[in-house]
Specification:
The structure holds 3 protein chains of 3 kinds. By secondary structure, chain A is mainly α. Chain A has one domain (about 5-130): Fumarate reductase/succinate dehydrogenase, transmembrane subunit (3 helical TM bundles of succinate and fumarate reductases). Helix content of chain A is about 70%, strand content about 0%. The N and C termini of chain A lie far apart (about 45 Å). In chain B, about 35% of the residues lie in helices and about 20% in strands. Chain B contains 9 helices and 11 strands. In chain B, the strands form 4 sheets. Chain B has a 5-stranded mixed sheet with strand order 2-1-5-3-4. In chain B, about 50% of the residues are buried. Chains in contact: A-B, B-C. At the B-C interface, helix 1, helix 2, helix 3 and strand 11 of B face strand 4, helix 4, helix 5, helix 7 and strand 19 of C.
Chain lengths: ~130, ~270, ~375
Amino acid sequence: MNLSLPENKKIRFLRWFDFRSWRLGMLAYILNRVTAIGLVLYLYIHLAVLSMLTGGPAQWDPFVALARSPMFLALDVLLLAGMLIHGLNGVRVALTGFGIGVRAQKPMFVALMLVGAVLLLAGALKIFME
Amino acid sequence: MQGGTRKKFVQLARCANTLMAFDITLRMFRYRPGQAAHFETYAVTVPDAANVLDAIEQVWDKHDRDLMFRHACHHASCGTCAVRVNGREVLPCIAPVKNYLDGAKALTIEPLRNFSMVGDLLVDVAPLLQRQETAGLVITRPVENHLDGKPIASAQGLDPESVETVPFNRFEDCIECGICLSACPTMAASTKFFGPAGLAALKSQLDKTTDPTERARLLDLADDEQGVWRCHSAWECTETCPQNVRPAEAIMALRQAILARKFGFGK
Amino acid sequence: MSAPHVLIIGAGSTGSATAHDLALRGLRVTVVERGEIASGTTGRNHCLLHSGGRYCVNDQEGAIECIEENLILRRIMPHALEMNDGLFVALDDEDYAFKEKFLAGCAACHIPAREIPVQQALQIEPFLNPQIKAAVQVPDGVFEPWRFCTSFLATAKKNGATIRNFTQVNDLVFQGRAVAGAQVFDHRTGKTEIIGADLVVNATGAWAGMLAAMAKVDVPVAPTAGVMVAIGKRFNNMVVNRMHLPHDGDIVVPIRNTSIIGTTSWRVTKPDAIEIPQDQIDKMMQAGQLLMPILKAGVQRGVMAVARPLIASANVDARDFSRTFEAFNHRKQSGVAGLITISGGKTTTARGMAEKVSDVVCAELGVSAECKTKTTPLISYRDFYV
C-alpha cells in the first residue's frame, strides 16, 4: 500500500500505520488507539452479554460454561492486557500532558509497560488458576 | 562535467585513500496532478561526503531536469528541502548518504505527508507558513551573552547610530521545514490542527514578550479546540525535529501556562 | 495605457530585489525561476552580511557597496538578520603587519571599525585561537538566504508582481533581433507557454552566459566555485575573519546553531551540481582550525559548493575578480534590444544591484520613477505564501 498517494487524501489517518516511521512514542500512540477501540467494543459486548440475564438460567448457564473454557479465558487475558496498556499509558499521557516528566516519556513508557507485563502475568495466573 | 571527465573523477576518487565515491540507487516518488503517482529508480554516483540532497540534485542534473524538489541553503537553515527518506522525515541536506548504505538497498525518497502535493517532492507549505505568521513568530531573538555556559563580556555593537551596548541576537531554532507537521499523527487526522511548529512558535513568542495583550493573544490561540488540547502525545514532532525545537515540550508548557492563567496559580 | 511589463529571469537575490524595486516603481513584473527560490548561488552562499571589511584593501569599490547596503538592509529587514558584528583577527606577524593597511582601508571605505584588546576579544569569543595578536571589530552580520529572497518577493507580490518558481526558460522570443519575451516550461503543469515582455532582465547570475547565448550576446561572467563546510555546532557569536587579503578558509560564519567555514575559489565551466574535490574540504577544515581550534571537535554537517557570478577580467586570478556588479544593456553593446543582464555582486549588495538595473530598465522603457527601496521596509517573507 502506498500511503503517500494523493488518492488517499480522504483517509489520511491510514498514514498512522506507515510503520517505517514508528518510534516508541508513536507505537504508544497506536497502541492507545487500538486498545481504546478494543475496550469500547468490549463494553458493548459486555452489555449484550449481560442482557442474557433477562432470559433466565436457561440462557445464562450455558454462557457461564462457555466463559470457563480455556479459549474464553485467553480472551479475558487479552482484555486485561488491553486495559493495562491503555490505563498505564494513560497515566503517562496525563503526566506528560501537564508537563511532568516530558523528557522521560520513553523510559516512562518502558517502565509502565514492564509494570503492566508483571500485572498481566499475575492476572493471567489468577484467571487460569481459579 | 562531461561523461569522460566524470568517469575519471570517480576513478580518481576511488584510487586515493581519502577519496571515495558511492554508487547508489534512489527510488524517487514522482507525481503530477492528474497523473498516477509512481516510483522511479535512478542510479547516481556521489562522493564520500555527500548528503542525500546532493544525490537528489544529481538525479536532477544527470537524469531528469523535470524533477521538482525544493532546496536552497544546503546547511539546515532555510528548511526548504525536507522530505522522507525510507519513510522518515529528514533534512536531506544534512543526512549523509553513508548512513543509509547498510544493506545497500535503494533509498526511497518521498514528499512530506499531511501537505497537499504539488508534484514530485514538492508540497504546498503555505498552511505551515501561514500558521507561523498567525503565531507572529519573529525569526530572531535576543540571546544571553554566553556560549556553552561560559559567560562573556557583552558585545559592543558597532551600529554607527548607537554606540551603547547591544545584545547579541540569533535566528530562532525553528527553520519552518514542515517535518513535524508531516510526522504528527494528529495532523494526519485533522487539517485544522494548529500543528507542532505553530504551537512551538506560540511558545517561543510567548517567551519573548511581556506585553499582557500580546501574551493573552498567544495563549488564546493555544487554548483552542485545535490548539494544544488537540495534541495526543505521540512525540513524533520532538523526535523528528532536526533543530531540536522540541515542539511537544512547548505544547505541554503552553498547557501549563493556560491552566495557570485559568486558575490563577504559578504566577 | 498600462505600465510596461518586465520579465525577470532568476529568483536569486538579484532577481528578487529587482522584482521588488520595479514593482515599487509601478511596473508590471513577472519573475520566472527554474526551481525553488534561491536554489542557486544565493541559497548556497556564506550567509555573510558583509561590512566590506573583507574587501577594504584590495577591492575598495566592492567594500563601499557592501557597507552602504549593509546599513540599508539593517533598516529594511531588521528582523531577518543576525546582527552580531564581526572580528578580524591577526594570527601571525604577517597578519599583524597588515593591520594598519586594514584599518586604513576600513577608514577609506567608511566602514566603522575599532581595534579591541586581544584579551577582550578572547572574552567575547572564548573559542578563538588564543595566539591571536590583534582583533578589529566591524559591523558584519548574518542573513538567511532563502528568507532574504522571499522577503523581497513577498513585498514585490504585494505590490502586484507575479512570481513563478519551477518555471524554466526554454528560449527567448524575438521581434526582429529584439528580445520580446520568453518561452517557458512550467514544471507544475507540464505546459509550455510564451510570456511576452517589454523588457527581459537576465538575473541568472552564474548562468547568465547561458541565457545570454540564447540571444547570441556575450556577458563576461566567470562562474567561480567556492566550497563551504558547515559544522553542526556554533562556537562564535560574531563572524570571525582572518586579517589579511581574502584567502581560502579564512572566515567562520556562525548562523543559528551552525558554523560555516569558507571559502575557496576556482573557475568552473558548468555551474550546475558542482563536484567538490576532497582536498578543498580538507583545506577548509585546516584553515578554519587556525582561526578557531575547537572546530576540530565539531561534526561536519554538510559541504556545499556553488558558482559565484563574478565579472571576469583578463589575466586575473579567480580569487581577485572584483566582487562588484555590472548591468549590461545589450542594445548598446550588441544591438540586441529588450534584454538587460545584471551580474556580479554579492547578496549583500543585491538591493543596490537591483537599483542600478532598475534605473537602466526605466531609462530603456522611458519610465521616470524613482527608486524607493532604500527606505521601504520589507513585509514578512511568509506573506510570499499568502
